[in-house]
Amino acid sequence: MGAPPGYRPSAWVHLLHQLPRADFQLRPVPSGFAPQEQEYQQALLLVAALAGLGLGLSLIFIAVYLIRFCCCRPPEPPGAKSPPPGGGCVTWSCIAALLVGCAGIGIGFYGNSETSDGVSQLSSALLHANHTLSAIDHLVLETVERLGEAVRTELTSLEEVLAQRTELVAAARGARRQAEAVTQQLQGLAFWRGVPLSPLQVAEDVSFVEEYRWLAYVLLLLLELLVCLFTLLGLAKQSKWLVIVMAVMSLLVLVLSWGSMGLEAATAVGLSDFCSSPDTYILNLTEEETGLGSDILNYYFLCNQAVSNPFQQRLTLSQRALANIHSQLQGLEREAVPQFPDAQKPLLSLEETLNVTEGNFHQLVALLHCRGLHKDYGAALRGLCEDALEGLLLLLLFSLLSAGALATALCSLPRAWALFPPRNPSALCSGSHPSEPLLHAGLEPVTPTPVSFQRATPRFPELPLLSCPSLWGPGRPCRLPRAPVSASPCGSFPGGRRRSH
To answer: pTM for this structure?
Structure first.
């Protein structure tokens, strides 16, 4: 089979095509692309199920690790205020995992764009092929209608004008027969007319699916990017509630990453099987959907010297008939116009119709050649089997990095969370003070007095001795007590202002 121009199966296609395949009973399955067969469908589902297995193992590992961390930690000695050994390494390992996840997100954006470009190239090739097929149908229809109108009007008028000359009437009727033959041959060139399969509809369906696929991946990438950024913010701010919320979101994104990985893996494997030998499957599918003959499909999909043009005979007969019509009209113009001047007008109209028909015929010859449609076929394969497949592999790498990074972060976040210092709202000089309960009890606080080390200038002078009856006996001298000195560690009451009596 002839390969499309510019298309060769890539190394990735060969590598993925060589991977072993098995059904649900673990029996080997051929790697030929056969999506309608149950065994091949089971093989692709088994490839997708490997991602589900990876998800289950990662969840079990995370659960076991967290249970061991929560229930099997050695008790901390009383009064220990230093962080446990290795705490900094845990935090930095979590940060490194999140940065790897961010790098995977960048790869995911690039892979999503590559996949979209490949699918867009496929849609463009389908639209161009639809334009070619529509142009063939339009030219055939226009030429047939123009020739039919000329036969019904101009040739009929010419025969009526030349009714007195039998040989001239016979020449006009010969031109009529040739025009009808050309019409019959041209109608057989519109091979795509009435075919239920429309490249335009296929292109629209592919674009519709690709639009939602691209949007879904963009949302997934943005969600993971927000989770990574807010988790880093929670670690930097040492915010426990933010870290807890992001841990729950990380678990959700982990499940989505493994699910997308299974879908990407199955699609990449199936696409590699298709791209390794696309001609056979495309020929069989197109023949089944369109009902066209294998000679026409082989000519356009293979386009090599071993396959002849199935329309060559029709084109040759049409060209000969047009040449005969042209020579007959020239002979009638030489012989009939001098004797029948009224024949000049229909003859000129017939010459104009013949010139337009010949122009349309040359365009048909160019459009019916296999080069144009075969080029579109090659462009579609390059877009699907090169750009789209490479984009899928990059998305697969993104999902793998994302799953690994999120699993590491989920294991590291609880230990990093445990290292966060407790946030006590009461601290000295920043909140309530020891003197505030006195205010609430209705007692007047005493203005604090700074301690002076200069004995010559005391804060409160000595008062005269008084006779103070007490337990010590009558008339025992005593002094009034000094005002108590506040023991506030900051030397002031809240707000930095001293209270006066």
So the answer is: 0.77
